[in-house]
Amino acid sequence: MKNLTQIGLGIGLLLLVALVLWQGVTDILRLLAASGWVLLLLPFAWLPSMIPLTEAWRQMFTADRRPPFPRALAAMWIARAVNNLLPVANIGGEVVKARLTYLRGCPGPTAVASVIVDKTVQVIGIILWGLIGVLCLYAIDPDNDFAQFALIGFVALGAAIAGFVLVQRAGMFGFLAHFGESMLKIESLNGVSVGARELDAEVLETYRRYRPLGYAVVLKTFGLVAQTAEVWIGCWLLGHPIGLLEATMLKSLTLTLSDVAFMIPNAYGVQEGAFIMVGALVGLDADTALALSLAIRIRDVLLDPPGLVVLHRIETHRWFGRATA
């Protein structure tokens, strides 16, 4: 798995570099520079989406075991940094999220079960978000055939969620913790790696809480919809304003296409190609679409590295017998 994600990282970076060179480095830099320093504030348009996404994860716990919102938000931030900056196929961050929850006193099976079910809920939210994007596309241009290609992404995501369900029915959940031990090269997860039967029972119990589960799906979908703001504002800052309907479609379909390529860390290159392809449907030229994708990645540069630093400090403190997470 690690070798595959490293290969995916190499392919993604090569694709990203090729797209930038193809469109012209100077032209793209000119577009970004024309927006000025205010473009660095674009991540603040994305940050509010973390509130419903975090609250959706908290719904996976019973009221007596639910982590406080600030701690859950911090764990989500660190997990995102791991998934975006390390070749972990979007799994390593979930392992870290479970570990941090466990270190704060949550039972191991409950912590791991929460991230497994949350990942499934996330896939459902992305499918719903993608459908919203297709509806927006039909509203903009009913005769456009691109929706058929977008449906291919839904088929892939549907297969992914079916895989999650099959794994859950088989009780094969301990692999997440074992994968995290070998991948992150840290000390034993000390109880996070639990028996399959115990974890299976915890996951099934989580699925029986229908009301919190449905609420989590709504929150996940709303959190994804809220990310439209960064695309809408980004286009405005780059001097190519578009309507909210177009921005919703653009964000939805590019995110869906990017998530299909989960083996490429942070969808490097794939996201940029998706913005060029989908951006053409709303009148964005390739240079602007590529600049918009790179502008959105500013949050990766500003927000993700500090998350890895915090994780390093947490693990360093534990290794040397000081404070826990």
Topology:
Layout: H1 2-23, H2 25-35, H3 43-46, H4 50-58, H5 69-85, H6 92-103, H7 108-140, H8 146-170, H9 175-184, H10 196-208, H11 210-226, H12 228-237, H13 244-260, H14 270-279, H15 286-296, H16 298-319
Helix pairs in contact: 2-15, 4-5, 4-11, 5-6, 5-16, 6-7, 6-9, 7-8, 7-10, 7-11, 7-13, 8-13, 12-13, 12-15, 13-14, 14-15
Structural write-up:
The protein has 325 residues and is mainly alpha-helical. The chain has one domain. Helices cover 75% and strands 0% of the residues. The protein contains 16 helices and no strands. The chain has helices at 2-23, 25-35, 43-46, 50-58, 69-85, 92-103, 108-140, 146-170, 175-184, 196-208, 210-226, 228-237, 244-260, 270-279, 286-296, 298-319. It is globular and about 55 Å long. It starts with a helix and ends in a 6-residue tail after the last helix. Residues 179-193 and 321-325 have low confidence and may be disordered.
